Amino acid sequence: MNEWKTTKVGDIGKVITGKTPKTSNSSYYGGKIPFLTPSDDMTVKYVRETKKYITEEGRLTVKNATLPGNSVCVSCIGSDLGKVVITTEETVTNQQINSIIVNENKYDVDFIYYVMMELGKILNFHSKTSTAVPIVNKSSFSQYEFLCPPLRIQKQIGSILSSIDAKIEENKRINNNLAA
């Protein structure tokens, strides 16, 4: 366990706060680029579709806010605070989401997803103690710390937890088919 090191979220990759293209410009919407917001289904591990899509023109108006696939996205405001998903393709998020483009040479995306799930529970718990709308900005988000093992152990942990999640999803599909 002495191989595990205290690590800040900001050290695991590039942290990006999303941006919203102007909603008054209809030419920015209706394209093929997923636009992730907390109102999308963030109860799944991988975001495979979103309610809104933006155009290339819309994406260009929110420079430096485009995420590649395998980015870990965390909702950081309101009642959805702490929900976590992984992108499966190039995606843009709104400003209510802080995302991490994980440095995959040092960190395992699956492991980081599960760490963020635990951090999300902490963030959500803290939000319940506030009377104002809870929000975690990029600076605060980047400073959160967790214990992190070497990459080989991260990969083992991420793989085991992913296998369990895959089995749970398979069981849900079977149950839904039986119910139908």
Structure write-up:
By secondary structure, this protein is of the alpha+beta class. The chain contains four helices and eleven strands. The strands form three sheets. It has a five-stranded mixed sheet. Strands 5-3-9-6 form a four-stranded mixed sheet. Strands 1-11 form a two-stranded antiparallel ribbon. Helix 2 (109-127) crosses helix 4 (151-179). The longest helix has 29 residues, at 151-179.
Output the keywords.
180 residues; alpha+beta; Adenine-n6-DNA-methyltransferase TaqI, Chain A, domain 2; 4 helices; 11 strands; globular
Summarize the helix and strand pattern as letters: EEEEEHEEEEEHHEH
Major beta sheet, specifics?
Answer: 5 strands, mixed
Instruction: Determine the CATH topology.
Output: Adenine-n6-DNA-methyltransferase TaqI, Chain A, domain 2
Shape category: globular
CATH arch. level architecture: Alpha-Beta Complex
Instruction: Show unreliable segments.
Output: none
Q: Radius of gyration, rounded?
A: 17 Å
- Order of neighbouring strands in the sheet with most strands: 2-10-7-8-4
What is the CATH superfamily label? DNA methylase specificity domains
Tell me how many strands there are.
Answer: 11
* Nearest-integer average pLDDT: 92
Helix content: 25-40%
Structural class: alpha+beta
User: What's the oligomerization state?
Assistant: single chain
How many domain modules?
1
Give the C-level CATH assignment: Alpha Beta
Distance between the termini: 47 Å
